[in-house]
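Running low. Invent one:
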Amino acid sequence: MDFEIVTLLVSPLHRYEGRPADGAAAYDGVELVDSVRVRAHKGLVGDRYFGSKFTYATVTLIAEESIRWLEGELATGPFDPALARRNLVTRGIDVDALARTTFTIDGGHGPIRFRSLTPANPCAWMNEVFAPGAHQALRGRGGIRCEPLDDGELRIGSATIGDITPIPPEELTRRVRSAPV
């Protein structure tokens, strides 16, 4: 299935840490990139989660459609999807439906397999960066966390997704099995 990668965000800094009322951490480096190297079981080279012990959550995705829906739901906007701080913003696929699956993304530089065990639940920061009520409204639409299973490269632009396979329940931890999708 064809879709588009509209934003790639790679940042060495946790900008939304602490209390939202304190504001986001400043960073004057480049976070939005045209391409990024993906390393199996490590994440995106240069990103704050690269090589972390939470390998299952080193790459995050959100659908641009979720952000556009949020604009309508809160009757405000427009919102910059990059403010969600997900690594990939996509257009044309239901990202949230990919939780608890393995899938392959090919952006023209070879296929890269990913495993998504959990959704990327929104946090209170969404009320600060989008609008009051965004945190609650984005529940179930906040995207997914996943682990790359192959090395490769992702670029802004057209891509395909395929080989979408549910992860068997016995391969999920009890905590993941009982968490809402």
The longest strand covers residues 157-166. Helices lie at 64-74, 125-129, 134-137, 174-178.
